[in-house]
C-alpha cells in the first residue's frame, strides 16, 4: 500500500531523530538501537523517564501543539526524521472516544507538524488491529491469508479505527508536504518476561489469541524495522506489515485455520508454523529481516 511523494532523503548515521513514546514498550528499545547505529536521538514521552542513550530527553504531551513544535526543532533547526510511537497502546485503557481522539490527534500534530517543519522522513507505528480482527469484540475471519497490506480494513473498534486513521494521517502528510512516511503494522510486540507471559497464555489456551491470528514480533526486531525504514531512502507513503515469520504457538497453522477460521481462503502455501501475516513487502522494500525467535530455546535467545 503506497502513494508517491516528492521529497527524497537518505538519512546518515549522524541524523537527528525525534522518537515520541520513547518510554513505551517499543520506544525504550528503539532509542538505544538508533543511538547505537550512530543517530542522535531526541526522546519524548509525557511522563518523566530515563533514557541514557538519548542526546536529549523532553517531557510533554504530543497533543500539545506548542510542545510538538518545540520538539521538532530541539537544536534550532528541524530534526532530520521522526519516529512516532506515542499512542494509547490498546483498547480498554480509556473510553473508546478518548482512545480514538488521543491517538489521531497526536498522530496529526506530530506527522503534519513534521511535514510543515521540513522534516525529511517520518516513521510511525500502526498496528495489525487496523485490519479489524484483533479487538473486534466478536469473532471475525480474514477473507484470505497470508494477509497482505491490500486487504481492506473492517474495523469495528475504536483502537483499530485509530490506527487505520493514523495511516491516513501519514498519507495526508505525504500528499501535503511531500515528506515520505512509513507506517509499520505491528502485531503483539515483546521480549523477555513480556513475551514469555504472552506465549504462556497461548500455550494454556490457544483460542485466546485467535483474533490476533497468533502474530507476534520480538521488540528488538521492531526496533530493527524502525531503523530499516529510516534508512530505506523510500519516497512517498507506505504501509508495511512487520511480523515474525512464524506464529506464537506450537499448533500448526493449518490446524489453527481449520479450527478457528475455516472460511478463510489460503491463497499461497503456508509452512507448518508460518505466520498468517505477509511481511514480504517490508523484506523487499525495507530489507527487513527478523533475528529473534522463541522456538529453539529461551525467549531471550
TrEMBL record:
Phylogenetic classification of the source organism: Bacteria, Bacillati, Actinomycetota, Actinomycetes, Micromonosporales
Q: Domain Ketoreductase, which positions? A: 15-150
| Superkingdom of the source species | Bacteria
* Keywords attached to this entry: NAD, Oxidoreductase
| Family the entry assigns | Belongs to the NAD(P)-dependent epimerase/dehydratase family.
Record flagged with keyword Ion transport: no
Q: What is the designated name of this protein?
A: NAD(P)-dependent oxidoreductase
User: Sorted alphabetically, which Pfam families does this protein's record hold?
Assistant: Epimerase
Read off the SUPFAM superfamilies from this record. Answer: NAD(P)-binding Rossmann-fold domains
Amino acid at each position: 500500500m503506497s502513494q508517491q511523494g516528492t521529497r527524497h532523503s537518505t538519512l546518515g548515521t549522524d541524523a537527528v531523530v525525534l522518537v515520541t513514546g520513547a518510554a513505551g514498550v517499543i520506544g525504550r528499545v528503539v532509542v538505544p538501537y538508533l543511538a547505537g547505529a550512530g543517530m542522535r536521538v531526541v526522546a519524548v514521552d509525557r511522563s518523566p523517564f530515563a533514557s541514557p542513550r538519548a542526546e536529549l530527553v523532553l517531557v510533554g504531551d504530543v497533543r500539545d501543539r506548542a510542545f510538538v513544535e518545540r520538539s521538532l526543532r530541539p537544536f534550532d533547526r528541524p530534526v532530520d526524521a521522526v519516529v512516532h510511537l506515542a499512542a494509547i497502546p490498546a483498547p480498554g485503557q480509556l473510553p473508546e472516544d478518548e482512545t480514538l481522539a488521543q491517538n489521531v490527534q497526536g498522530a496529526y500534530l506530530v506527522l503534519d507538524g513534521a511535514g510543515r517543519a521540513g522534516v525529511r522522513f517520518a516513521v510511525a507505528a500502526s498496528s495489525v488491529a487496523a485490519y479489524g480482527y484483533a479487538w473486534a469484540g466478536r469473532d471475525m475471519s480474514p477473507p484470505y491469508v497470508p494477509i497482505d497490506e491490500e486487504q481492506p480494513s473492517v474495523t469495528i473498534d475504536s483502537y483499530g479505527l485509530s490506527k487505520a486513521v493514523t495511516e491516513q494521517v501519514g498519507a495526508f502528510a505525504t500528499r501535503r508536504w511531500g515528506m515520505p512516511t512509513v507506517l509499520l503494522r505491528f502485531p503483539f510486540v515483546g521480549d523477555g518476561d513480556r513475551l514469555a507471559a504472552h506465549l504462556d497464555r497461548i500455550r494454556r489456551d490457544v483460542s485466546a489469541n485467535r483474533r490476533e491470528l497468533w502474530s507476534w514480533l520480538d521488540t528488538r526486531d521492531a526496533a530493527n524495522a524502525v531503523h530499516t525504514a529510516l534508512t530505506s531512502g523510500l519516497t512517498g507513503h507506505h504501509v508495511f506489515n512487520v511480523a515474525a515469520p512464524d506464529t506464537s504457538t506450537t499448533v500448526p497453522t493449518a490446524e489453527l485455520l481449520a479450527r478457528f477460521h475455516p472460511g478463510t481462503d489460503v491463497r499461497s502455501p503456508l509452512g507448518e508454523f508460518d505466520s498468517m501475516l505477509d511481511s514480504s513487502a517490508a523484506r523487499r522494500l525495507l530489507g527487513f529481516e527478523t533475528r529473534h525467535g522463541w522456538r529453539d530455546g529461551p525467549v531471550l535467545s
